TrEMBL record:
Residues 1-24 have a biased composition (Acidic residues). Residues 513-537 have a biased composition (Basic and acidic residues). Transmembrane segments: none annotated. InterPro entries: Nop_C (IPR042239), Nop_dom (IPR002687), Nop_dom_sf (IPR036070), NOSIC (IPR012976), Prp31 (IPR027105), Prp31_C (IPR019175). One of its GO terms (cellular component) is U4/U6 x U5 tri-snRNP complex. This is Pre-mRNA-processing factor 31. One of its GO terms (biological process) is spliceosomal tri-snRNP complex assembly. It comes from [Candida] railenensis.
Length: 551
């Protein structure tokens, strides 16, 4: 419970059964646990002393219960296994923390079972807003306050009882494995294990006579496996049996497991009856225990209805840090009350997250319906749970096996051919010639003539050279179809004519240029020759004038 709830419950005062101061008890008698795991001065020790001495004062069970819930981490299975050495514990019933208060819890359940006048909604709204004065709180009777306190404690009590059942089961399997080693692996349920151990005890050789009784505990398949394992162990190993005092200890521990399981069922029925009036639709979806946990964590039904659905998986989470042990391999960090519900906890990790999302949304809707006082018979919650189960089945279903899809029927459109003279001519032009047909035939009983092509491959000629006769001559009667000879299309003829005209033009231009160059060269030669003659005449006349001047 939260600090605010503890303060409010302290304001409520005592439940009218005892005037013992809780804080004083916690300081004096409930400080530490001894090496065996129980509280010195607790109800078990006091009750044992009073039974031995014939009477005496005992500690208030209500105060002890509140202290046990406030220190619930001490009673966890992991802490118990780390703190105690089970192999050194002789009688585990002496170390039970719930055994001293079983009678107290049953008295509370029986006293509140018939009392249907408690206005639970009003009490929860008082807890939510915290605005009620002391005078308003004092209006409630002491029985109503006590009942409300007990309802708030039920969910914590259930977790403590489950941890103790697991701890006792570890004790039973450790000591009984010397008698029946395979039973631990066949039956994992602590309650079924305890029932089978009390039924067959150490008489494994007569296991067949217990088959009918075993069928009322486990399935027929497991009964067969248990029978065969017991017979095999008797045949392959010595018939080891525990001493009578040792087995009496196992009887007591197994009986305690059955008693704790019965107490859990009574608590579940009690809280289910109470919460069915207050939150019937939520109760129909997740059950009474988870419903009480969610209401206690949120504070009231109104607070739960206005809480976003994405925050519901975080309610009840003790540590969101991913550094805690065991959380590295877990895909979900929000392991709160909803995660430990039967709808989610037993599912594969791959679908737990989507199931939590679906479940949170449905719980929020159901809380709003319960707050508005609609569907008080829980029919809407049952419908929501059915929807959740259907969605879980779809998530668990294997992927749809889609076979190979058949190809569509081929649509063969009618070929677009054109008949008539043009088509016949085209087919005649492209068909195999008579010479090729003769090459593809071979004369019976005669060697075929062959030639070598340019690539060195041998090509048979068949009957293309005729059929050899006895005289050595050959006859070849092949008709040549002149109509299928090589023909040039009109377009090709036009292209050839254009190319021929271009070639002629190029030749003409080349010849013209050649003639022009020849004429130009001849003109240049004549001009050069004339210039040379002029230069010679100038030189001769100049020399003559120079000689005349000297004379």
């Amino acid at each position: 419970m939260t600090d605010y709830e503890n303060e409010l419950l302290a304001d409520f005062g005592s439940d009218g059964e005892s005037d013992v101061d809780v804080e004083g008890i916690e300081d004096k008698n409930l400080e530490v646990e001894d090496e065996n795991g129980y509280v010195p001065g607790g109800p078990r020790e006091k009750s044992s002393e009073s039974s031995e001495t014939g009477g005496g004062a005992s500690l208030d069970p209500g105060a002890y219960l509140r202290h046990l819930i406030s220190n619930s981490s001490i009673t966890s299975l992991q802490k118990s296994l780390e703190t105690f050495d089970i192999s050194k514990i002789y009688d585990i019933t002496k170390d039970s923390k719930v055994l001293p208060i079983i009678g107290y819890l049953r008295d509370k359940i029986s006293s509140y079972q018939d009392d249907m006048r408690t206005d639970y909604e009003e009490l929860m709204s008082t807890l939510t807003f915290g605005t009620s004065s002391n005078s308003e709180v004092s209006e409630h009777s002491s029985s109503e306050i006590s009942q409300y306190q007990f309802i708030l404690m039920v969910n914590e009590i259930s977790s403590i009882i489950n941890n103790e059942v697991s701890f006792i089961h570890a004790f039973n399997t450790l000591h009984y494995k010397v008698v029946f080693r395979e039973l631990e692996t066949i039956v994992s349920n602590p309650v079924d294990y305890a029932r089978i151990m009390l039924l067959i005890e150490q008489d494994l050789s007569s296991i067949n006579k217990y088959q009918e009784d075993l069928k009322s505990i486990v399935s027929n398949e497991k009964v067969l496996v248990i029978t065969m394992s017991a017979i095999q162990q008797v045949q392959n190993s010595s018939d080891f049996k525990l001493s009578e005092p040792d087995f009496n200890t196992l009887r007591k521990s197994s009986s305690l497991v059955l008693e704790l399981n019965e107490l859990l069922q009574d608590l579940s029925v009690f809280i289910s009856n109470k919460l069915f009036r207050f939150a019937p639709n939520i109760n129909a979806i997740v059950g009474p225990i988870t419903t009480s946990q969610l209401l206690t964590a949120s504070g009231s039904l109104k607070q739960l209805s206005i809480t976003p659905s994405c925050n519901l998986p975080s309610l009840g989470v003790k540590d969101l840090s991913s550094q805690t042990s065991g959380s590295t391999s877990r895909r979900i960090r929000q392991t709160g009350y909803l995660y430990h519900n039967e709808l989610v906890n037993q599912l594969p990790e791959e679908i737990q997250k989507p199931v939590l999302r679906i479940l949170s949304g449905k719980i929020t809707l159901a809380a709003r319906v319960d707050l508005s006082k609609n569907a008080t018979d829980g029919s809407l919650g049952s419908k929501y749970r059915l929807d959740i189960e259907n969605k879980i089945e779809k998530l668990l279903a294997p992927p749809e096996n889609r076979g190979d899809k058949a190809l569509p029927i081929p649509m063969d459109p009618k070929s677009k051919k054109r008949g008539g003279r043009r088509f016949r001519k085209a087919r005649e032009r492209l068909q195999m010639s008579d010479l090729r047909k003769a090459q593809n035939k071979m004369a019976f009983g005669q060697q075929e003539d062959s030639i070598m092509d340019s690539f060195g491959e041998e090509i048979g000629l068949g009957m293309s050279r005729g059929v050899s006769t006895a005289g050595g001559s050959s006859s070849l009667n092949i008709k040549v179809n002149n109509r299928v000879g090589g023909k040039v299309s009109k377009a090709m003829e036009a292209r050839l004519k254009n190319e021929e005209a271009n070639v002629n033009l190029d030749n003409f231009l080349q010849n013209t240029n050649k003639e022009e160059r020849t004429e130009r060269n001849a003109t240049n030669d004549a001009t050069r020759r004339i210039n040379d003659e002029r230069s010679e005449s100038k030189w001769f006349s100049g020399m003559k004038r120079k000689r005349d001047t000297n004379d």
